[in-house]
């Protein structure tokens, strides 16, 4: 997994609540058996005027000029500013894969869908929860300042605005540790393989019906 | 200290914990389907790892499978990418193994959240995971059941564990009696209408109260299934006689002396008297009528006697703006009575409402009536092969067919339109599924979530109608 330590990047403000993972990456693209290449279909139904299907040449598509990520001023944005409950709905990890593949590295909003929030951390993407008043402030600043950028420091858990004001955010220590180091958590878990085996052996004796092997 | 059901399930699976509370939880049951598993198996292969315990895996193909033309086999699936996903799952299960695998066209194949309980693969006290958000369904059996992402699918395959932080607990107590024509789906939609789609975020929800106790396992599954639409990670219901009766004799349920031992353990799977919850919501089932959604989020819902709201009804500007967009997408005008909204298609199915009880309820409304001529397609997609055969044994298929419904093969179908069953742009659907998101049932499609009875009533009337009048 790619490390996340610090980021200084352009911000794209996406002023919608309840953006679901079906909207982030529509179902027709879930048929891929790969992890990569989803970026070109990120927000497909909003980003393009024509209907998207897998395998199309992006150059042949009709971009929706009104969609935030199509506006020249936000080209190259790596921070997406969002509203409540971003990433709700389906558990599809294709959503963070698409966001990451598109070039986004951090998301800032008031709340995120639970499973989506988890999935982000597995893919080097940092979702940051801030209080509503601070998110409102960022939307306001981004609307009035072309080229609006933010600095994010995961080590110190701060988002630093252009005016120097630092907004602090919470992140679980374990997730932070994995993201700062780019650790694969399967490897970390397998360091406890003996403990898992021991737990499993006891469980097999106490509740053998959970280990039924015949159908 | 008195414990909640969630506390008990959590503690029973806790292997170790980091200082920040990140826990390693043991996973008893891993349900696998074709859409969210290929990249996980690939990751396993690339790292030269093997599954920790293949005996925990129950797999099926459901999301991509067609609901007709089964006689043509896999070659009958025109979409090459859908076919490849089914073949990839076949190959992965062949290589790694599973406790049970119900591939495309197997007589026991079906929606993963229908077949788990049906086969007795879901048992009380288990942790159940699946790369699918509606895994919360299995909480109806007093399981701790989570939807997970593909990286977590790989993690569970490799380690039999899930890294997880304990959620807060929420009690949703639903008292009173359900009115005639009101179902578990209406309770779920009314709850989401009250607390919002983010209302349960960060919580594990336990459903209790006399109305919940009175529900069948099918109804409890519908309720827990929709817990994710309220934002909750998990929904659950304590064990009682209804749970035990449902499980007895299921193929993977324990038998003989093991059954008795298991039942003794399962009976303890309930919250202790006086257990504390971080949040409590109380609903009166008697006050809830049949529900219909009008927007593009399950929280955009009202009773059938209601009308489409106007943006100015909402004080928060972000919410009001969301309503403007939703009404535009849905092609609806404020103040239109729900019963004045005409529909083009009807879908009865999905992991929310495709079990035998759902089909019986819909058939009871349909019996002796005809689908309105203005309805282009009315589809019944049973949740599994066994549900389909049971329905046919009861003659329900005949009732649907005589009324003008199509009777299809099992699968996820038009809930998410990964197969050929979908809405065309602008088409409006009365659907028993779980999400009315933009494009969910097909690009440009307009979804209204309802119960099976209400979907049946809409099919007959050609517009949303109060099923209580038809009963």
Question: Summary?
Answer:
Chain A is α/β, with parallel strands linked by helices and 215 residues long. Helix content of chain A is 31%, strand content 14%.
Topology, please?
The complex is a heterodimer of chains A (215) and B (471).
Chain A: E1 6-13, H1 21-24, H2 44-47, E2 79-81, H3 94-102, E3 106-109, H4 114-121, E4 126-129, H5 132-144, E5 149-153, E6 158-160, E7 166-168, H6 173-181, H7 185-190, H8 193-206
Parallel strand pairs in A: 1-2, 2-3, 3-4
Antiparallel strand pairs in A: 1-5, 5-6, 6-7
Chain B: H1 5-13, E1 14-17, E2 23-26, E3 29-32, H2 38-46, E4 57-60, H3 80-96, E5 100-102, H4 112-118, E6 127-130, E7 144-147, H5 150-159, E8 161-164, E9 168-175, H6 184-195, E10 203-208, H7 210-213, H8 217-225, E11 234-237, H9 241-247, H10 256-266, E12 279-284, E13 291-293, E14 301-303, H11 317-330, E15 345-348, H12 356-366, E16 377-380, H13 385-393, H14 396-403, E17 406-407, E18 428-431, E19 446-449, H15 452-461, H16 467-470
Parallel strand pairs in B: 3-4, 3-6, 4-5, 6-7, 9-10, 9-12, 10-11, 15-16, 15-18, 16-17, 18-19
Antiparallel strand pairs in B: 1-2, 2-8, 13-14
Helix pairs in contact in B: 2-5, 6-8, 12-14, 12-15
């Amino acid at each position: 997994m790619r490390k996340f330590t610090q980021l200084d990047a352009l911000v794209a403000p996406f002023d919608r609540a309840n953006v679901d993972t079906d909207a982030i990456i529509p179902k027709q693209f879930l048929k891929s058996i790969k992890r990569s290449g989803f970026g070109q279909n990120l927000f497909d139904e909003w980003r393009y005027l024509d209907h998207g299907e897998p395998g199309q040449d992006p150059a042949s598509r009709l971009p929706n000029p009104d969609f935030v990520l199509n506006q020249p001023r936000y080209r190259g944005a790596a921070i997406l500013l969002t509203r409540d409950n971003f990433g709700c709905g389906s558990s599809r990890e294709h959503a963070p894969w698409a966001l990451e593949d598109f070039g986004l590295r951090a998301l800032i909003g008031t709340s995120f869908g639970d499973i989506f929030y988890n999935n982000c951390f597995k893919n080097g993407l940092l979702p940051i929860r801030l209080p509503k008043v601070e998110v409102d402030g960022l939307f306001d600043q981004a609307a009035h300042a072309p080229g609006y950028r933010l600095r994010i420091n995961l080590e110190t858990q701060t988002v630093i605005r252009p005016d120097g004001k630092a907004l602090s955010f919470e992140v679980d220590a374990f997730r932070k540790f994995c993201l700062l180091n780019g650790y694969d958590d399967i490897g970390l878990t397998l360091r406890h393989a003996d403990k898992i085996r021991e737990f499993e052996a006891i469980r097999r004796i106490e509740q053998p019906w959970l280990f039924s092997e015949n159908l | 200290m008195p414990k909640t059901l969630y506390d008990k399930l959590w503690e029973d699976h806790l292997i170790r914990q980091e200082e920040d509370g990140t826990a390693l939880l043991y996973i008893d049951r891993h349900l696998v389907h074709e859409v969210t598993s290929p990249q996980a198996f690939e990751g396993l292969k690339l790292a030269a790892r093997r599954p920790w315990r293949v005996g925990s895996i129950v797999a099926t193909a459901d999301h991509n499978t067609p609901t007709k033309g089964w006689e043509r086999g896999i070659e009958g699936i025109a979409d090459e990418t859908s076919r490849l996903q089914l073949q990839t799952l076949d190959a992965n299960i062949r290589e790694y193994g599973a406790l049970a695998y119900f591939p495309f066209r197997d007589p026991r194949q079906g929606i993963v959240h229908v077949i788990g309980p049906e086969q007795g693969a879901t048992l009380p006290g288990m942790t159940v995971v699946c790369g699918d958000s509606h895994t919360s369904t299995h909480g109806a059996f007093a399981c701790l059941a989570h939807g997970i992402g593909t990286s977590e699918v790989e993690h569970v395959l490799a380690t039999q564990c899930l890294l997880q932080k304990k959620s807060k607990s929420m009690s949703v107590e639903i008292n009173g009696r359900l009115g005639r024509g009101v179902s578990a789906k209406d309770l779920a939609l009314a709850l989401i209408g009250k607390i919002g789609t983010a209302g349960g975020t960060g919580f594990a929800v336990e459903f209790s109260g006399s109305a919940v106790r009175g529900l069948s396992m099918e109804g409890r599954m519908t309720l827990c299934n929709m817990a994710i639409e309220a934002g909750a990670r998990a929904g659950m219901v304590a064990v009682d006689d209804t749970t035990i009766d449902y499980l007895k004799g299921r193929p993977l349920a324990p038998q003989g002396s093991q059954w008795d031992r298991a039942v003794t353990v399962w009976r303890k799977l309930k919250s202790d008297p006086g257990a504390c919850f971080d949040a409590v919501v109380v609903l009166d089932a008697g006050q809830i009528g049949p529900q219909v959604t009008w927007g593009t989020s399950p929280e955009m819902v009202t009773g059938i006697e209601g009308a489409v709201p106007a943006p100015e009804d909402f004080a928060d500007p972000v919410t009001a703006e969301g309503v403007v967009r939703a009404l535009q997408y849905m092609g609806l005008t404020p103040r239109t009575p729900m019963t004045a909204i005409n529909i083009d298609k009807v879908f009865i199915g999905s992991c929310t409402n495709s079990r035998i009880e759902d089909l019986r309820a819909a058939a009871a409304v349909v019996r002796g009536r005809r689908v309105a001529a203005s309805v282009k397609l009315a589809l019944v997609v049973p949740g599994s092969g066994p549900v389909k055969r049971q329905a046919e044994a009861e003659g329900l298929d005949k009732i649907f067919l005589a009324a003008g419904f199509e009777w299809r093969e099992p699968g996820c179908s038009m809930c998410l339109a990964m197969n050929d069953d979908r809405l065309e742009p602008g088409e409006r659907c009365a659907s028993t599924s779980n999400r009315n998101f933009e494009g969910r049932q097909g690009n440009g499609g307009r979804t209204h979530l309802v119960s099976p009875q209400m979907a049946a009533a809409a099919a007959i009337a050609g517009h949303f109608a109060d099923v209580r009048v038809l009963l």
